[in-house]
């Protein structure tokens, strides 16, 4: 498997142009809708802006009726909880607007089939396209085709190999996800001598997994009392999570914290923990499923937090697409145009703030 092979979510490093230095610009609290917080920037590189994204119910986009627009939406097959939430968030957001018609494809993990679905939308002459590619590199040409046809493209999360293939990119921050997981664990263990942590990663051949690990390791460097003593790479599935977590538990009779990259594979990890009868450590999840948030709220598990990779990004992508088609800028910004790049913030959800984020949890 190569870096261009799609994972369940996350931006893959398909293009050197996407590896720009971040200039994080956060506006407002993380619990506010991403539509109100999209930061303006001046280049088409991924890392030029970031914004909080949690509650799409909170509003923030320009609700004033404008010209009627048709948004074509094409994503991969919804075979993972996060991807299903991506589709549902887009549908729900489009229903909010009387001036928006959403033409959504069935989705496919087969690149040729997804290209065909996007070409159908191009031939229908939709006003704007939102595309979460199954493989960013493989779908770059169809993005270029849409742009040449005068149909602006909002590239959602998995980035195309050329910035000319999209007008705007919006997606998550995998490095920031790992960084915030590491910071949370570090603060919980900062007073414990010789603290030990383990990591249950995702698919190691994916750049998104390596970015999450890099952020996690960088955060732990600030806590000299903490050592990462074990790491296993799973495959974003329940079965792999259970098998790999069982291996970590067997190899490490004691540790103080676990970071799991993905809440879906975390279902399996929790099964392995229960079967082994283990506790005495804290667990941090990744992505933000509703099940995990409810477990955190109940407070009766080793699972104490999860780091968001917000599927509400698709709702914000609909906001961006609507603004593009109607020639609008975004509320809260001085610019007349929408930004070229928006990076969402990976908030840490704990028992203290879980009620704020529960509405965004995916099944």
How would you describe the overall organization of this protein?
The chain is an alpha/beta fold and 363 residues long. It folds into two domains: 20-172 and 311-343, Response regulator (Rossmann fold); 174-308, Response regulator (Rossmann fold). The chain is built from ten helices and 13 strands. The strands form two sheets. Strands 1-12-6-5-4-2-3 form a seven-stranded parallel sheet, sandwiched between helices. Helix 4 packs parallel to helix 5. Mean pLDDT is 86; it is low at 1-7 and 11-59. Pfam families: Peripla_BP_4 (PF13407). InterPro entries: Peripla_BP_I, SBP_2_dom, TAT_signal.
How would a textbook summarize the main sheet?
A: 7 strands, parallel
Percentage of residues assigned to helices = 25-40%
What's the CATH architecture of the largest domain?
3-Layer(aba) Sandwich
**Using only CA atoms, what is the Rg?**
20 Å
SS-derived structural category: alpha/beta
Strand content: 15-25%
Low-pLDDT residue spans: 1-7, 11-59
Averaging pLDDT over every residue, what do you get?
86
Q: What fold name goes in the CATH topology slot of the largest domain? A: Rossmann fold
**Cα separation of the termini:** 27 Å
Strand order, biggest sheet? 1-12-6-5-4-2-3
CATH superfamily of the largest domain: Response regulator
Gross morphology is elongated
Overall CATH class of the largest domain: Alpha Beta
Number of domains: 2
Q: What is the β-strand count?
A: 13
Q: Give helix and strand order, one letter per element, not per position.
A: EEHEHEHEEHEHEHEHEHEHEEH
Instruction: Enumerate how many helices there are, as a single number.
Output: 10
